[in-house]
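A sample copied in:

***
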Amino acid sequence: MYQCVLNYTINKSILLGKGGFGSVYLAQNELNQEFACKIISLQSNQNNYRKLKQLVDRELSIMSTLDNQNIVKMAHSYFDGKNIYIFMEYCNGGNLKKKIRELQSIYPCPKFYKQKYEKLAQEVFWDIIDSLNYLYTKNIIHRDIKLENVLIHDGKYKLSDFGLSKFLSDIDEEPMSSILGTPCYQSPQLLRQQVYSPKTDIWSLGVLLYELLKGGELPFRGFNTQDLLKDIETKLKTNYIQNQLLSVENKLLQYLVSKMLVIDEESRLSLKDLLIKVNQFRINAQLMQKENITATETRCKPYKPEKITSKKTSQSNQEINNKQSIPIRFIQTYKEKKIEATFISKILDDKLSSNILILLALILFIALMQISNKI
């Protein structure tokens, strides 16, 4: 089933994703370039029409200002009076939820394949921390970081879905509502509908990283908001998170996640803190790499030929000539001896011929003498 909107053809038989407010389908433009089209039906959400329209308008306002390699870009948007169409960059690798399920099917026991999950967590962390840094320079809070909202394209991880995002200046304009966001990723401040800061995204990222490190296991659970808050408080009081992360080999991620999942915002790591720690880690890693290379070069020092002076060069050339002259003299001597042997053989042959002639002459002479005596 196809639908044409603007210069795009939407293929509604290929569903890329589905959310609380709409669905995402594959689309193509006139140049056959692929896009993702998010369709939000306002008619099917009559009860929250005004609220939903505000969220979508804010999402479009925010996305129109964004241009970062780790953030999904918006191409066009269109409203036909019933539905809102948002055409975005298409990501060919799906989302992190799909990725973690694929890993679980291949490596069902994360405990024995933790390096695979840690590698994924580190790659995601580098890219998402870059996207958050960019957002904060624009004074934007995402507020809905979770596996489903991290898309993958050609190995790059991109933050998407800005339906719940806000400019920092708008934080106090509206109270939090229970219909917004995914509770198990939300910070305690959002769950309690308290005043919050950009560090609410740091909490959500900590939950996401923990989930990746543990092969899809969420750090906190609850049937409702109160149960979830109780689980958070209990586990953090008993150092549950730190104990669960002891088996993580990547000590940087182990440390960062434990410091990101802190209830008190003042004590929770900020984005600036994260960037400082990451840069320190990268510098230390580069230094260690250089030291390892130097140590390897020292142990396996390559042979360097001694520099030859002009005197040594002449001596060396003389030695080479001497070495070369041995086979030459041998060949020359061999040739001379061969010629000499041939000459002697010839002489011997000549002497033999002479002796035979002399002998024949002598026989002939004797025969003539006998004939003359008879006469």
